[in-house]
Amino acid sequence: MFLLFTGTGAMVQAFQLPVDRLNRDIGHGKDGLTTKVMLRDRNGQEFRIKFDYVNRVPSACTPDVHNKEVERLIKEDKVHFLLGNTHFAFSEAEIANKARRLTYHCCFETDELFKLDYQYIFGIANLADQETHQALTSMALEDSIAKLFVFYTTDFRYGKTACKNAVNYVSSKLRRISTKFELVKVMEYSTANVSSNPDFFSSVVTEEAIRSGATAVLGCDNTVNGFAIAKALGRIKDRLKAIFLTLSPGVYGFAEIVGPENAEYVLTSSSWHPKMLGQGDSFFGTPKQYAEAYAAAFGRPPSFVMALASATVVSLLFALQNAFRGCEFLDPENLDVDSLLFDPNAIRCTNRTGIEAVAGTTVTGYDALLKSLSAQSMSLFLGNVEFNHFRRNIAHDPVVLQVQNGVPEIVLPLEEASRKLIMPIPHPEEQPHVGALEEDSFIIVVVVVVVGTLLLVAALVMVVFYRQKHARKIRSLLLIDPEQLEVINLPLQLDTAWESGKARLRNTLVALEPLTEVKVGWSSPGDPTSSRKSSPEMSMPKKSFLMKGKALLSTSPSVGDSQELRYIDMDTEEASHRSDPQLMDSDVESLQQEVSHWDHVVM
User: Quick check: keyword Transmembrane helix in the entry (predicted)?
Assistant: First the structure.
């Protein structure tokens, strides 16, 4: 069986990938996949399906050259099926339909072609009519987007159809969602306009967008022009809240071609993405598995165009596999491809009730194949496939992609999304501010200040705790119990001076020095609530000091030779800040009498 694609480059590779996989059993049995496909009749007789791929690529492909190649393939090469070419779809379809050759279009054709109702023309791509609807609805629901500017080329049917339907959708249905969302300008241009002005998109399209006051733009053009448009819009991107372009943002390497800043947040619609969920078949598996198979064969990831091209071959393969389940091979030993498809005496087919498929007429394998493909309703790695009466796939819904961090990600519909939709496009000057700082920076400053304050408080608490602990330790070292002090002789007053006394403390000889200039206060005996009275003032040398816990020694001539050691627990801080620290001695009255005769002494 022969296939045709009259294109160039990666499209040819995308068609070749499933052919090689089928003919060479690549991946057969891996992860439950079946690439060795058999064709069976109702009696269980089976034949191996293989494709022989023929490709014609003229060096200079004009419509006339292309049409001659199509006729040559049908008449001379006698191919059984054609894989359609978008650029020459109408002329090609007319030739193929007259020759009764199935032509399966992979890519961007509009309903104009299919409404011609050619029996042999099929298309697997989603409709261009609804290409922009999901993205436009999101724009209308965004409060900051009010004005839409639409521009498109009149020389690219797919783009023209997509944008014209977008205009109708905004004017009709979206007005019910948001009354403030309006279409401010629609601009049409031709290939001649672009060719005559190398700076057309920057000097004409973007300037028109500025004049219209648009906050969102939607452009429909081919892939190559889409790259130039993305670069031109990058110049006014700070004015825009949303950008939607057909085709180009979904192409592999878009961010590298137009520049990361120009590519970021641009929206597009796509027929396929490797992160799509819930899709798959027994030949390639899931979208992710198809992407891995393509990358393994050609060393780069596939775009949605490649997936569409490969899917036409897989869809045709399954249609062939199912076409003869209700038929009987009348002479299986002499059956070849040509007789299978074109010889009415090679097969006998019945419908579900077992009656002859077409009473009084002959049925060929080609008829059975067309019927099988028309009735196809299944899921492929591309998505769902089901044809309307014009043989156009109506079951496959596109996804909306947005370039984020240089990579096209699925953002709509939500059940397929791999990333959250970012709309409006964020701009640095629009970031939330608190005073002179951006919101994020302000939060960072607050966190740093709070953490710093907490650390400072923790440090102060530790310092206070340490000082208190140290003070308690010093106090424990300096606090002397009177019973531990063995007095040898008391201080002796010599005229105006004092001679130190002596005592023994824990087998250590210590000196007893008198304290002077200490204001000593006390409460009246028997009345702890009465007001205090000042004691006589004594003089104390500067070298003397007062510390926590003092052993004070006093003697009075009135008691003869008796010596009495008194213990007073007095806090340093209280002594420094209170002018009349209270003596904590139980014998206050005797101390009052003694203070005029003896100064207090401390070690």
Answer: yes
Amino acid found at 435? G
Q: What stretch of H or E contains 52?
A: strand 52-54
Stated pTM of the model: 0.70
Structure tokens at 136: 């436009």
Digit-coded pLDDT (tens) for 508-526 = 787 777 655 333 333 334 4
Tokens of 408: 């096209």
- pLDDT given for residue 96 in this prediction: 94
SS3 state at 513: strand
Would you place residue 127 in the very low, low, confident or very high pLDDT band (cuts 50, 70, 90)? confident
- Strand-pairing partners, residue 151, are 187, 219
CB neighbourhood size of 492 (10 A) = 11
Of 535, 537, 540, 553, nearest in space to 602 by CA: 553
The number of beta carbons lying within 10 Å of the beta carbon of residue 92 is: 25
Question: In terms of Cα–Cα distance, which of 227, 226, 236 is closest to 203?
Answer: 236
Top mean pLDDT of 64-73, 411-420, 526-535 is at 411-420
Beta-strand ranges (E) seen in 197-253 are 216-220, 242-245
Q: Which amino acid is at 198?
A: P
Tokens of 388: 């309307």
CA distance 221 to 354: 51
Give residue-wise pLDDT tens across range 59-89: 667 888 888 888 988 998 889 999 876 678 8
Instruction: Please report, in angstroms and rounded to a whole number, the separation of the first and last CA atoms in the chain.
Output: 118
573-589: string of b/e by CB count within 10 Å (b at 16+)? eebeeeeebbbebeeee
Beta-bridge partner residues of 270? 399
Token pair, residue 509, equals: 């000889």
Long-range contacts of 460-466 (CB under 8 A, 24+ apart): none
Q: Among residues 482, 493, 485, which one has the least CA distance to residue 511?
A: 485
Burial (CB count <10 Å: 0-12, 13-18, 19+), residue 313: buried
* 3-class DSSP assignment, residue 384: strand
Q: Which helix (H) or strand (E) holds 595?
A: helix 588-595
- Rg, C-alpha atoms of the chain: 49
List, in sequence order, every beta strand (DSSP E) within 237-321.
242-245, 267-270
Give Cα 30 to chain centroid, integer Å: 32
Cα–Cα distance for residue pair 310/381, rounded to 1 Å: 10
- Report d(CA 452, CA 62) in Å as an integer: 74
Q: Are 502 and 514 in contact (CB under 8 A)?
A: no
Contact between 58 and 30 (Cβ < 8 Å): no
- Measuring CA to CA, which residue among 166, 149, 132 is closest to residue 236? 149
Burial of 44 (0-12, 13-18, 19+ CB in 10 A): exposed
**Contact between 121 and 114 (Cβ < 8 Å):** yes
Residues 382 and 373: beta-carbon distance below 8 Å: no
